[in-house]
Design brief:
This protein is mainly α. Helices cover 80% and strands 0% of the residues. The protein contains 5 helices and no strands. Helix 1 runs antiparallel to helix 2, helix 1 packs antiparallel against helix 5 and helix 4 packs antiparallel against helix 5. 18% of the residues are buried.
Length: 125
């Protein structure tokens, strides 16, 4: 798989996740199940890495996985506790799991292409 293909897949998956969760939390806020402020607070962390993800910055892809872990916990908790939103929770969990594999893989591949990485400590020091 090429870096460009992986980039397109990860970016599309992230935008799909953002739209899915935004729709879910806004709908929950409008029905009164959650307050609208609480619903918007759930969306804000997803917006933090959006610029780097859309532009393909490997460093952003590396740290954005930590944010996705929060939403994976949400999805897996919903799978366990609800029957009404089971399909939503399964879709959310599978999509996030795929992104948790794809993001670091893309960051590693693209970082190598750009020559990024940790500097090795010289033996003289």
């Amino acid at each position: 798989m090429t870096t460009q293909t992986l980039f397109q897949l990860c970016r599309t998956g992230y935008v799909a996740l953002l739209m899915l969760l935004s729709g879910w939390f806004i709908q929950q806020g409008m029905t009164g199940e959650y307050s609208m402020v609480f619903s918007l607070l759930w969306i804000v962390p997803l917006l933090l890495p959006i610029k780097g993800i859309l532009t393909g910055k490997p460093y952003t892809y590396a740290w954005a996985s930590f944010i996705l872990c929060l939403y994976l916990l949400h999805g897996l908790t919903l799978v366990y506790v609800t029957e009404d939103a089971l399909y939503f929770a399964l879709i959310e969990s599978v999509l996030i799991s795929a992104l948790l594999v794809g993001f670091p893989f893309y960051a590693r591949m693209r970082g190598r292409e750009l020559g990024l990485g940790l500097k090795k400590k010289s033996k003289d020091s």
